[in-house]
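Supplementary Methods S3. Complex input for the spermidine-bound model.
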Amino acid sequence: MPIQFNEFYNENTGLTIGLKKLLFSEQTDYQLVEVFETDTWGNLMTIDGMVMLSEKDEFVYHEMVAHPVMFAHPNPQKVLIIGGGDGGAAREVLRHPSVKHLDMVEIDEAVVRASKEFFPGVGAWEDDRLNVLFEDGIAFVKAAKAEYDVVIIDGSDPVGPAEGLFEKEFFQYCFDALKEDGVLSAQTESPWVSEYHKSMKQVFDALNDVFTESDMYLGFIPLYPAGMWSFAYASKGIKVQSDEVLSRVEKGLSGFGDDLKYYNKAIHRGSFALPNFVKEIIR
Ligand code: SPD
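Predicted complex, serialized as structure tokens:
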């Protein structure tokens, strides 16, 4: 009998991954963090039984949570990541040469420890622009005032410690933490999981109320529910699809575009095109 990991997201419908062995398992004060060696996806990290990343497909999520928003800002120097303990989003942010300082605020140090040991290619831990803090991200962002050019929310699903990352109050704190030309991105779940539609709508309603611009965009991540994943973009005025941003994408990618495996200028443009059933969720 093969050993398998199963994540069910609709009654008995879900994802099955063949496993070789369990590498790490720790019930922390916040959640159950586990790492498995799989048959085809490299190492896999789960939190409370939900897939966070695999070595094989993590590039999609991390490139997409970082680059659209990083290129939207004309000169991102100071960046904040809430969550992101595996280090993948930080790695992508740090590809941008304008970045001078990146605060990554992860509530659970076990996620960073597990990532450093079992996902050695994911985090850019040696980059001295990176400052890792083990704190509650909501309290941290609440205390920050007009400090950051970019805020990225790379939390887990809206159950347990990440629930507050889907609430309006939190997005108001993010708005206040951003400088006047600040931009934000956030992960906002799979449009195919109806249990999360309420949280998705809540996020986009909040962004509409709090920010000047807000948009949803999509990426395709095989090990996340149904393979389709949504993200939010928000800003105090910068339109993510403007000619100015697109020409920044082109210029920036001439520097490090060959190192990316998913994001490019056409993806930047196309990922903001939404199917009707997805628009309906946040209407
Ligand atoms: N159900 C998957 C939710 C994943 C959101 N964050 C993933 C962390 C990767 N840095």
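The two ends are 46 Å apart (CA to CA). The pocket of spermidine is lined by residues 50-53, 61, 84, 86, 88-89, 154, 156-157, 187, 224 (CB under 6 Å).
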